[in-house]
Amino acid sequence: MTRSFPDTFLFGAATAAYQIEGAAFEDGRTASIWDAFARVPGAVVGAENGDVACDHYHRYVDDVALMKQLGLQTYRFSTSWSRVRPDGGPVNTKGIDFYSRLVDELLGADIVPWLTLHHWDMPQALEEQGGWTNRDIADRFTDYALSVHDALGDRVQHWTTMNEPWCSSFLSYTAGVHAPGRTSVLDGLLSSHHLLLSHGRAVQALRERDADLDLGITLNLTVADAADVADPLDIDAARRIDGQFNRWFLDPIFRGSYPADIVRDLRKVDAGAVAEWQDAVHDDDLDVISTPLGALGVNYYHGELLSGHPQEEAEGNPHETPGQQRQTASPFPSHEGIQWVERGLPRTDMGWEVQPEGLTRLLVRIGEDYAPEVALYVTENGVAYDDVVGDDGEVADADRAEFLRDHVAATLDAIEQGVDVRGYFYWSLMDNFEWAWGYAKRFGIVRVDYETQQRTVKQSGHEYSRIIAARSV
Ligand code: PNW
């Protein structure tokens, strides 16, 4: 039986500035933390960087034509802070003009622009003043948000402040596998708070400008299941991962408080860091952070099955990132005794399990527990596979086509269960710079030949076009 999506549901695809633009030092852009981190020996597989990436900065006209050909209704992209305000300083007209031309091109193609202000590429000059660990960053970020709004506010309706603050705090400042590569529990805690504070301040400032803007944030979220649902240790392991990954961000945004159980756990790990973090959380901060939103973006890649029995083997851990040549740590400050259990589900090229029903459960849970008043969008979902290019130049990625169809269907399942989900963005429009993995992992529905910059729509891209045209699965 085929089932249809609501008429207003939006189908799109997503990218991020550093991952596709290239032109890293053109037209006044200066270094971001990713330009700097990519040059640290051992930080990125193959010592690759985003200097050229997909050369989207020069090819955006063709890329928008490709989006139109695919039938995308919306396109999620990010603006580069160091292009718009190099070194975090005054506005760079040439930099912001690029986004203005991109937005015009999208609107001309009838594609709704979906803008993210921060997708991890903060100016390196600001990192040198402490980056997200320095409270002043909230003012810098708000200035940056307003300058993007100055230029694009007349044409862009949908604004996302942050992409995945868990990644820009704990993966970046505690685990050390993403820029700026620090390994400190305190820095992870401080940066998570300042990312949320910056989000709240920017939402307030943008809303003051224009009450009609659709404002939101994108979080990476997971379903954390206990291996044995009757085992107290397994239940507790699932609680701790859910708390550190999901609730650490959801609770301040939607409930105006940090999860007390996790604060308690963290105190056992590093009481000094928790005390310093508590000093950094000022009285009014949580009111600012919980400013009501119009949209919550949910990024879902995989779920996790957890055990609290240390003797079990930790084969299932999806949070393994490269960086073995550098000192790295767990992104979860409270990880002792937690094991990820292998459950035999198929795995992707990232080692992540394929679990579409997890997306349905996640959306239902978020809709019920946190966001009954806010519209949900799946702002990222996608898969890396080791694509094979045929003799005819075609990419027969039946595995990705199936993944896409199954997750679009899982989104529809949530809608049918009453959750207000209004869009789905596949990650990613095209193969691109996959952070610490460099160009080794391909998520695109469009293949990029990094020698020639030629784009080829994969079988999964054609499949997505058919789904969008039919508006049903
Ligand atoms: C997201 N994890 O990153 C990002 O938003 C994208 O830029 C990225 O390309 C995409 O997912 C694929 O990786 C994540 O460790 C990186 O759980 C790591 C995790 C989650 C999301």
Automatic annotation (TrEMBL):
Active site, UniProt feature: 164, 380
Keyword Hydrolase attributed: yes
UniProt keyword list: Carbohydrate metabolism, Cellulose degradation, Glycosidase, Hydrolase, Polysaccharide degradation
EC number of the protein: 3.2.1.21
Enzyme class: hydrolase
Tagged with keyword DNA-binding: no
GO molecular-function terms, A-Z: beta-glucosidase activity
Composition skew (Polar residues), residue ranges: 322-331
GO cellular component: cytosol
Chain positions recorded as substrate binding sites: 19, 119, 163, 301, 427, 434-435
GO biological process: cellulose catabolic process
Cited InterPro entries: GH, GH_1_N_CS, Glyco_hydro_1, Glyco_hydro_1_AS, Glyco_hydro_1_beta-glucosidase
Transmembrane segments: none
Listed name of the protein: Beta-glucosidase
